[in-house]
Each structure stands twice: as C-alpha cells, then as structure tokens.
Amino acid sequence: xxxxxTEKDVLKAVKDNNVSFIQYWFTDVLxxxxxxxxxxxxxxxxxxEGMGFDGSSIEGFxxxxxxxxxxxxxxxxxxxxxxxxxxxxxxxxxxxxxxxxGTPYDGDPRYVLKRMLKxxxxxxxxxxxxxxxxxxxxxxxxxxxxxxxxxxxxxxPVDRATDLRRQTIFxxxxxxxxxxxxxxxxxxxxxxxxxxxxxxxxMADNVMAYRAAVKEIxxxxxxxxxxxxxxxxxxxxxxxxxxxxxxxxTKNTFFDGRDPYNLSKTxxxxxxxxxxxxxxxxxxxxxxxxxxxxLVPGYEAPVYVSWARRNRxxxxxxxxxxxx
Length: 324
Description:
It is a single chain. The chain is of the alpha+beta class. Among the domains are: about 5-105, Roll (Ubiquitin-like (UB roll)), CATH 3.10.20.70; about 255-324, no CATH class. The protein has helices spanning about 5-15, 45-50, 110-120, 160-175, 200-220, 265-275, 280-285, 290-295, and strands spanning about 20-25, 35-40, 50-55, 70-75, 80, 90-100, 125-140, 180-185, 190-195, 200, 225, 240-250, 250, 305-310, 315. A hairpin with a 2-residue loop joins β12 and β13 (about 250). The longest helix is centred in the middle third of the chain and has 21 residues, at about 200-220.
C-alpha cells in the first residue's frame, strides 16, 4: 500500500520508484472501466491540468459535437498495481471527469456519487457500504466451462480456486483494500471475496480496483473470471449484496434497541425509500438483459419488492446477528 495526499506526493512517488506508466481510471455510465496510460514526463501537466480525451467515444457521455472532455486524477487514489511487473512498476489514479471549462461533468458516475454524498454529509451523516461481490472462474472466455463442482464454503480439494483467491486478496491488500471474507459460493466454480466496509466514495473506487484485480490475476493464471449475473442456467447467479449504514459520528443511526426489530425510525424510512425507488434503482444497477435472468424464484435472488430479517431471498435484509 502507498499513501499519497497531494500532487507533490504523487510526483515524488513516481520518481523515487522508477514508475514506467501511470494509468488514468474512470467509468462510463454503465460502470465499465476505462483506462489510458501516460508516461512520467507528462505527469506534471497531467496532474495540474488533467488530460483531454474524446468523450463522444465513451458510452453515455456526450455527442460528437461536444466531445472534448478532461480526465483530472485524484492524487489520494494513487496506488501501484501489484499484478504488473515490479522492476518498472505501473501506478494508477482514479479520475474526475471535467468539461473543457474545468467544471465537473454532470454525467460522470463518480461526480454523481460525490453530489449525493454531499447531501448526506450536509444532513450530518456518513454513508458506509460493504459489498459482497460474487463471480465465476471459467476455463476460457469461449464457454462457461467450470473449474470445479464445489458448493457453498467448500474447501480443498473440491474448491479448485483457493490459490486464485489468495493471490487476489494479496493484491488487494497491497493496494490498501481490506478484505473480510473469501470463500467458494453456492454454484459450481462460483466465488466471493468480501470487502471491509468503507465510506461510499472510497468503496466505489475499491470495487473497480477489485474487479480489475480478479480478472487480471485470473488471466495471468490461464483462466477467465466473469461478474456476469447469470452465466449458467439452472445455477445460482452472481449478485453484489451491499451492506449499508448511516452513522452520525460513532453512532449507528439505524439501530434502536427499544424497537422489536432493533430498527430506528431513520432505518425504517431508509428501507421504505429503497422499496419505493426499487424500479429506478433496478434500471440503473441492472442494465443488462442477463441481470433479469437471475431474478427467478429458488436461487436466492430477490423476486419481490420486500424486506425481511432472516429471509435471504428478500430484496432488503436486516441481519439478526450482532444487533447494534
């Protein structure tokens, strides 16, 4: 892990570590990661002014007659990529997307999240999230050929991807991303690595870094990793359960020990809001046709707009263990 706070810190880290390339990372409106690289000689200008690119070629960004856009890196997101060669290391930074006049671009997903978190912060809250990302390892990208026939929490010798997950976790830790759990999931060749909760903006960046690490380490080991929601008919699909909480300082505002369900009024309003806006949330978070092939009864995927405590097939679940 390497910690930078300012542009000066980044420039020093690049020089001291003989960095070969610096990757600029951002996402389009569908959540697909975009990457371009610059050399150290271009970094001072690239940090101060950002780097221009053709926004009309990015899905959902802009039309060709308004295509000039700027990728401005966030120096606090500087990290080395542990799965790239160590003799001439490669680093990356996440970017904010700007208009040519330097104002934030309204369609930048990272800026959309920043705007919402400012509203949350103005009300005195901190919004924490902890995602559980599920994925499959296949023998190649040609067909869903499983590596094993393991099931939930199976280990060696049934689980054939223990070392793949191990390498991935080490890479995540090298990038300063805390991991809580790692295990085989319910479906054959399906796996999960859970991240320790963090504030929403940090976690959004971490999720993109996580996906890149899972895929690249799989490729280096001759297998194919996919986050496709339902790659195999008749088997559990992959989701991204996201633990959510609102805090004021150190106080969990969702908890009320006097309530039969340990839920505060804030928590109940929050749950109600998720249920009311479920159609819009689904439209944004499930853009692919394949997502809806997962939403069928019997596979631990939510079919109804509902909430529950112990029922893991509900859209919203309030865990019963560790109250408060």
